[in-house]
Amino acid sequence: MDRYVNTLDSEWYKQRIVGASICALVAFVALFVRLIYLQVVLGEEYQRLSVNNSIRLQIVDPPRGLILDRNGMKLAENRPSFDVSFTPKDAGDTGRVLGDLSVHLEIPSDDLLGRVKNSKGLAAFKPVLLKQDIGRDVLAVVEARKVDLPGVQVNVRLRRNYLYGTSASHVIGYLGEINTEELKGGGFPSLRGGDYIGRFGVERTYEAFLRGEPGGRQVEVNANGQVMRVLSTVAARPGQNVFLTIDRELQQKTEELLEGVVGAAVAVDPQNGHVLSLASSPSFNQNSFVSGIAADSWESLLANPFRPMENKAIQGEYPPGSTFKIITAIAGLEEKVIDETTTFDCAGSLPFGGRDFRCWKKEGHGRVDIRRALTESCDVFFYRVGQRLGVDRLAWYAKACGLGARTGIALDQEARGLIPSSVWKKKRFGVPWQEGETLSVAIGQGYDLTTPLQMALVAASVGNGGTRYRPLILDRVETMEGEVVYQNLTQVAGKIPASPRTLSIVQQGLWSAVNGERGTASRARLKDIEVAGKTGTSQVIGRKESGEDYLPPHLRPHAWFVCYAPAGSPRVAVAVLIENGEHGSSAAGPIAREMVKTYLRKTPAGERGSKDAVQVLAGNG
Predict the structure, then answer these.
(1) First-to-last C-alpha distance (Å) of the chain
(2) Do 345 and 223 share a structural domain?
(3) Phi, psi of 206, rounded to the nearest 5 degrees
(4) Residue 588 to residue 603: CA distance in whole angstroms
(5) How far apart are CA 331 and CA 382, in angstroms?
(6) Reading across the β-sheet that carries 614-616, which strands appear in turn?
(7) pLDDT of residue 181
(8) Residue 513 belongs to domain spanning
């Protein structure tokens, strides 16, 4: 019995061994067949892939969003550019390749080597940008010699194109190449050396909307880094289109009017705060920055005494001159130190503190009330009002009207201006305020400083009945397909501290300044449009007894004019500042008149920006 059992066990083990052997044999045969297939049938293909080729991931740049005006007219778009890049790991002899390439690019080989060295450790396996926008002649040479230039690639990228050169340059801004510190900081994970980001203006403020999201593609490259085929692609997401509140035709007209002078002009919609035009003169060509501005060109811009890189509309701080009399009038009426029947006698000057504070009209204006004082810009009348108010009450009203603080426009480096007070002077200079200084402040001289945008908003607020709006430069953002993804809301910043009666009196004075027989702003008058406004002349230095005609040009007074129109139901408010223009009536008024005419004659009533949504930002002042 035991022998029978042992025999059965032996047979069972033999069957197991035979079965296992057969399985192993089948497996080895399958592996052998597969090996033969790979080595013989596909051997040449896999040898090519393993010896000469590698798989890489490449970034696909997104098209940057367009910048358009309020009516959909393009201001900034994109154009194709041929850029030369270099991947050191594909080059073999880096020095030789860059030496040969330097001849075609007309860049010293040491500069090319330096750029490659600076990129080490920053973005492994990513190409290093050597030169942008090479032009078709250089492109033909590099492509013809690509076998002798391993590691060198020419890529087609989209480059920014500003359609009107210098137009709206301080609003739109420009792009600049991302630097090493920004790349290392991690704030731009999808970008690489040679990429451009917004550096100034709208390009910077709305970078997040405009940039888009990069895509990628998996490619097969040969030993020289040349793409053999595309294996897969993830599409880039284009940037979104930004629609500004700017009216391109008005912007262009404003810039034409400022040509040859140093200054700024602003137009806003009094009913919602939309900035219709914002020009600073002289300007600069944004396209100079597209491929990287040369160092000497940059230094020339910075050294220019007329400051073309300064946005004078929001960064320039100037004494407001007689345009400030609007504030003094409101403060005097509201504080009841005067009323609409109060009169003062103007004999051409006001003796105070041992000196004579002169009126611009040497022979004087005679007996003057508030309306006539605004119409004829009588200095003596406003000296008297300033005396009765004192500097601190004047300062409160000026600040409540939006002066001495940033307006909140979404552009870089906006200035605050300056509204002085007794506390400010004591803190700043360590000495008390003098009563005579109040007289100067009351007519917009002395320490007073404002920007053209601030004064345009003051005019807008007076014209619309007292509402202060935050100035908006962005209207909406749309996808490439036209879907609105962001709509800017009208934002109420506060109210002018003035009763309807006070505003009515001031409005009458401003209307008469343009349309009255003795108005100082008669050169801003239009036949078919009622304009209400105020001239201003702000001194650069104190007046000389010998007269201002003897002053050199750079020391002559600045010329101001602010207005709104139509006077009964304003649709545009304007401020113009001409540096050293001397007289607001002759230098600034005609420019404002043409701006008003251009906008209102092309924009019928009712076609202004939307007021459907209003956001309240602050209370009264």
Answers:
(1) 115
(2) no
(3) -110, 35
(4) 23
(5) 11
(6) 467-469, 490-495, 614-616
(7) 81
(8) 248-282+313-616
Provide the residue type at 244 as one letter: L
Question: Residue 6 forms beta bridges with which residues?
Answer: none
Say which of 288, 322, 421, 512 is annotated catalytic.
322
Measure Cα distances from 599 to 89, 231, 251, 577 in Å: 59, 55, 10, 19
Query: Which region holds residue 5: left if phi is over 0, alpha if psi is between -120 and 50, else beta?
Result: alpha
CA atoms within 13 A on the CB side of 207: 17
Amino acid residing at 233: T
DSSP code of residue 132: S
Instruction: Count other Cβ atoms within 10 Å, centred on residue 84.
Output: 25
Q: What is the pLDDT of residue 618?
A: 42
Q: Are residues 256 and 221 in the same domain?
A: no
CB 174 within 8 A of CB 168: no
Q: Using CA atoms, how far apart are residues 279 and 272, in angstroms rounded to an integer?
A: 20
> 355-358 and 366-368: which strand pairing?
unpaired
**Among 304, 317, 313, CA closest to 171:** 313
The letter for the amino acid at 103 is V
Least confidently predicted of 202-216, 336-350, 381-395: 202-216
Residues 599, 514 share a domain: yes
pLDDT in the model for residue 620: 34
**pLDDT, mean of residues 397-402:** 98
Query: Model confidence over 432-471: pLDDT tens digits?
Result: 999 999 999 999 999 999 999 999 999 999 999 999 999 9
204 and 328 both lie in a single domain? no
Strand-pair category, 490-495 with 467-469: antiparallel
> In the structure, what pLDDT confidence band is assigned to residue 619 with cuts at 50, 70 and 90?
very low
Report DSSP letters for 570-620, one per residue. Answer: -SEEEEEEETT---IIIIIHHHHHHHHHHHHHHS-TT-S---S-EEE--S-
Span 78-97, mean pLDDT? 80
Q: What is the pLDDT of residues 177-206, one digit of tens each?
A: 888 787 777 777 777 776 788 899 999 999
Q: Is residue 352 part of a domain?
A: yes
Phi, psi of 554 (to 5 degrees): -75, -5
- Do 84 and 163 belong together in one domain? yes
322 counts as catalytic: yes
Same domain, residue pair 470 and 587 = yes
| 300 belongs to a structural domain | no
Type of residue found at 571: R
Considering the domain architecture, whether residues 15 and 112 belong to the same structural domain is answered as no
**Backbone φ/ψ region at 460: left (φ over 0), alpha (ψ -120 to 50), beta:** alpha
Cα 418 from Cα 493, distance rounded (Å) = 19
Nearest-angstrom CA–CA distance, 141 and 104? 7
- At residue 48, the pLDDT reads 52
- Residue matched to tokens 């600045």: 558
Number of domains in the chain: 3
Q: Both 92 and 16 in a single domain? A: no
Q: Look at residue 280 and give its three-state secondary structure.
A: strand
